[in-house]
Sulfite reductase
Amino acid sequence: MKFTLDMKLKDIMAANPKTVDAMQEMGLHCLGCPFSVNESLQNAAQMHNLDPENLLEKINSVEQGEMSAQAVANAQPVGAILQADKQTYAIAPHIPAGVASPDVLRKIADVAEKYNAPAIKVTSAQRIAIVGLKPEDVPKAWEDLGMDPGHAVGLCVRSVKVCPGSVFCKRGLQETLGIGMELDKRYHGMVLPSKFKIGVAGCPNKCTDSANVDLGLMGTSKGYHLYVGGNGGVKPRQGNLLLENLQPDQLIPVVDSVINYYKETAKQNERLGRLIDRIGIDELRERVNQTLSA
């Protein structure tokens, strides 16, 4: 069987387990992650700065067989991300809206100390990562934490970043924590054609990058503005302002409409912004307006 760049890693590994050795040799060390293995070979190559054609040639040259014992040992523990030393892992418990109780903070600190983690890092996605764990300690750390690993990688809704909003911030014009928690509960981890990030900001300062993520809400004195199609990365894209001054009871139906449209329309591995660049924004705007008028 000849593999292609659009095939998912998990399908390649299932067809010929020995390809795991070749992929690890090329630098794909995330093959134990349940989210990464759903990515295509093309996307995996891009994420690891590899030449896709060279990787494909390497995979197709592997003889049929089982993966080696070393490849099994090197497989990434579930819920962990390999670090730069290629020997240790980071885990990042999911903290909805970035709001943590003292008990959660103590638990994270206790686990980090118990397993001799060299660092604790607050991430850009409002999680707290325990960095530098040995692979054999990762499952034990998760058991001790008793927390959701969250979805830090893969083709799904990843982070829902939320600012303090009008509850805490003197500049906040709209409430954010309640809507942010609801968005997180409703969408975090939802499988989509590509990765998808959400930001909720309480004022035009947009501290949560709401104009630079796939879907962003920004508070104004009259309601919430909705931005769609932003992203960072190698080819950053500014989000499009889709609607202005939405009211709180309109937010969930509108976000549902945007995400459902994206699920139905996008190609595999196509971010929302690239979909808009390809077919325009008029159809999406019409779909959302129909939702508002229903």
Remarks:
- The two ends are 50 Å apart (CA to CA).
- Residues 210 and 216 are 4 Å apart (CA to CA).
